[in-house]
């Protein structure tokens, strides 16, 4: 992948701002459509299905829908999951995505998004990023997380 298309792909992975997330309930098909449109550069590799979302709910990774409608909090949790599921176990995601009582999902999502933007900015400031560098950084950070 050329450096320019790599940078474009990174831009397409940025999560939408909290304010742009619907503040009304979404049915399953609307939830899937929103996620696919929100992260277009990775939606093709996500393979996100209704069964997966139902499993995330059963595992406590995503808040339960109310009357078959998913809340803004559940949508934010799902968006964070689609980025984290490539490198973290479900148990690790559960610990990270359910904030302590003194922190709401909105604040967690804003912090998550800000950290993601900073990481993307760092990669965009490097003239040439190799696959090896990405893989090594990913492996090192994954190991660091496990040691925590």
Task: Output the keywords.
148 residues; 8 helices
Description:
The chain is mostly helical and 148 residues long. The chain has one domain. Helix content is 64%, strand content 0%. It contains eight helices and no strands. It has helices spanning 3-11, 28-38, 40-46, 50-58, 72-84, 90-97, 105-124, 131-147. The radius of gyration is 16 Å and the shape is globular. The model has no long low-confidence stretch (mean pLDDT 84).
Average pLDDT taken over every residue? 84
Structural class: mainly alpha
* Number of discrete helical segments: 8
Oligomer: single chain
Strand-helix topology:
Layout: H1 3-11, H2 28-38, H3 40-46, H4 50-58, H5 72-84, H6 90-97, H7 105-124, H8 131-147
Helix pairs in contact: 2-3, 5-7
Outline:
The protein has 148 residues and is mainly alpha-helical.
